Amino acid sequence: MMALYFGGQNSYNAWRRPFWDGIAMKVEIEAKVAIEDMDAVADALRQAGAEHVAYLRHRDVFFGNKKGKSIKAGCGLRLRQQQGQGADKVFLTFKGPRQRAEYKTRDESEVAVADADAMAEILIALGYEQILVVEKKRGLWRLGECEVCLDEVALLGRFVEVEGPSEQAIRQVLERLGLDDREHIDDGYAKMVRKRLKEMRAEKMEAVFQE
After folding, report:
1. Which of 138, 135, 136, 134 is CA-nearest to residue 6?
2. Number of folded domains in the chain?
């Protein structure tokens, strides 16, 4: 597992998506597949000449409002605390409902914030409620025009997400990694975790690592 996440010495700050600085809106296009062996995918990335960017940990807190425009409607309002390799940051992200496309495609707006606790207090004061907490470990890679994420999600397991500028670019990366025959998962992690917790009749809507 260590070989997977720390497969390179590149600083995370040496490569960042432009919309991480300030506020931006974009269209997110991504494919997600479940995997069993992360090391095998990491080996395939190295053989394909991918750049290892960083190992990150995410704690995502999702908020919903009284009108229900949240996970149930296919939207997401997420406050993310990110740690790892000089990449400690906090982001507030809104994701719109999915558009009709082969891969998951939707509008996304994101802004960097200075204080996670203060931002949470602001959202609650505005009438939003904390509805879900999800923790994730992420190995971040770059292959061609695409970002490839090797994710371990608390309660769910292991996945590969490929995000890129077009469906064609994403499809090419999946083919190079030998993942093009895998079933695509349309749901986001938040919806998947929420469903699992309800099935478990969990007392808290939280999926966190027990470490």
Report:
1. 138
2. 1
